[in-house]
Specification:
Elements lengths: L1 H21 L5 H6 L1 H25 L1
Length: about 60
């Protein structure tokens, strides 16, 4: 189950990065206009999705 912990750790790290990326953003319109932030958040969401899928395969 060590791999499972790694996947969950990856999810937590991605959530923490999203939180940091969004600190200066005050509303959705600002988020849409800042392409670097938008791209970085979307990448972290992709990492979360990949980690969750791998975790689910591991525990099923």
């Amino acid at each position: 189950m060590e791999k499972g912990k790694k996947y969950l750790s990856d999810v937590l790290a991605a959530i923490e990065l999203i939180d940091v990326f969004l600190l200066p953003i005050t509303n959705f319109q600002s988020y849409q206009c800042v392409l670097k932030t938008n791209s970085a958040v979307e990448r972290q969401l992709g990492i979360i999705g990949e980690a969750i899928n791998k975790y689910r395969k591991l525990v099923d």
